[in-house]
Amino acid sequence: MAAKKTPDILPLCHPLSLDQVSVTITLDAARSAASVTCTCSLSAKTGVEMEALTGCMAALLCLYDLIKPVDPALEITDVRLQYKEGGKKGFWKHPKEKNGTPPSAATTTKRKVTRIGTAAVVTVSDRVHAKKYKDTSGPALAFGLERIGLTIKERHVVPDDQHAIVSILRRASRGVDLIVLTGGTGLSPRDVTPEAVLAVCDRVIPGIGESLRALGPITSPSPAPSRGFPGNALSSACREAPEACATG
After folding, report:
1. Cβ atoms of 97 and 83 closer than 8 Å
2. Measuring CA to CA, which of 21, 29, 34, 145 is 20 to 30 A from 191?
């Protein structure tokens, strides 16, 4: 919990939505000591070392509070960042750390996920569809949806063409509970994803889109032009399948 509250403690640390926080405490009877390790991870273009360090300090202070009636001569020492993966600099290891590359944060703690439904991911991009550009946002979306309990049944790549987007939405809606689109939400003439979503949805849910845009500055340097429109109750040919659709 302390790791997630880091922005409340450190005024210059921006808020992050952490995917995982793992705290382990190892006792060393020979030294009458305890070693605390905090691992934090998320899917965003930033590091989480301050959150991990805050988690360690909070755990150490809790131990201090519990043990001080028995031994008030306690010391908290050698608090440091051991490893950092991702962000702008890639992998980094503290010079005093003797071990090699640590296991991925996603595998350090087994995480049981309850399946809550099925989803389709649609990437809208002329360049990706023409195989001139690698799809990165589609796999990232699929990974995030899997982590929260959705089973990805379909993945599609379509060009920035409203008819193509509408067609894939109507076809995919018959087999999944949620459709999530990425791309085509900017201001250029070819950015028509929101118009395609509006064409097949009876209702829009503006609150979801506004919440996503509010989180934009954390993960993207240029989120302002986004025009994503979440909605539900697909109309016309898909009225018999009232699954949801969303863009972002």
Report:
1. yes
2. 145
Mean pLDDT (the chain) is 81
8 carries an active-site annotation: no
Tell me phi and psi for residue 67, to 5 degrees: -95, -20
Strand-strand pairing, 92-93 and 83-84: antiparallel
Tens-place pLDDT, residues 194-230:
999 988 888 888 888 787 777 766 666 665 667 776 7
CA dihedral 126, 131, 136, 140 (to 10 degrees): 90
Domains in the chain (CATH in brackets) are 6-108 (3.30.70.640), 117-247 (3.40.980.10)
Using pLDDT thresholds of 50, 70 and 90, give the confidence band for residue 238.
Answer: very low
CB 190 within 8 A of CB 208: no
Cα dist from 103 to 21, 85, 107, 109, 161, whole Å: 14, 11, 7, 10, 42
60-92 burial code (b ≥16 CB/10 A, e <16) = beeeeeeeeeeeeeeeeeeeeebbbbbeeeeee
Q: Give residue for tokens 């273009």.
A: 45
* pTM for this model (two decimals): 0.54
Residue 11: other Cβ atoms inside 10 A:
6
- The catalytic position among 8, 19, 28, 65 is 65
Q: How far apart are CA 99 and CA 173, in angstroms?
A: 49
Of 50, 199, 182, 60, the residue nearest 128 (C-alpha): 182
